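Running low. Got one?
___
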Amino acid sequence: MDHRLLDRLRDLHGSLGVDITSVTRMVEDDAPRADVLRDLGERLSELGAALLRRSDDVDADVLAKLPEDGWLPEAGVRHRALGVAHNVGERPLRCGRVYLALCGAVCFPFYGRDLSGRTARHERCRRCQDRLFR
């Protein structure tokens, strides 16, 4: 799916300059053409819908690997002390292998789905809690 979307984006990139020139000329000449506008609008709408569907698929894949409650331990080196747990929200922002919490902290899903509830041992970030319950 990603390769098809990438091909469609490249096609749009290749033709967008011509499309913008055509639309600009129509505006400047006060000679609108519905067919040109419709063609561009349909291509943009279809591509946008495909990108949104793919985004939903990626979100579902990400969420399937994280605890349902969204609480993850803070990433980093801890010696003999548990780190703080942060919440990554409903739509976690992934940056490489880590996730950004609501408060901006970097987190890592050390416990995967955390079915045994190990993250519960960690202190909860007050800033994340405040943002969750606004």
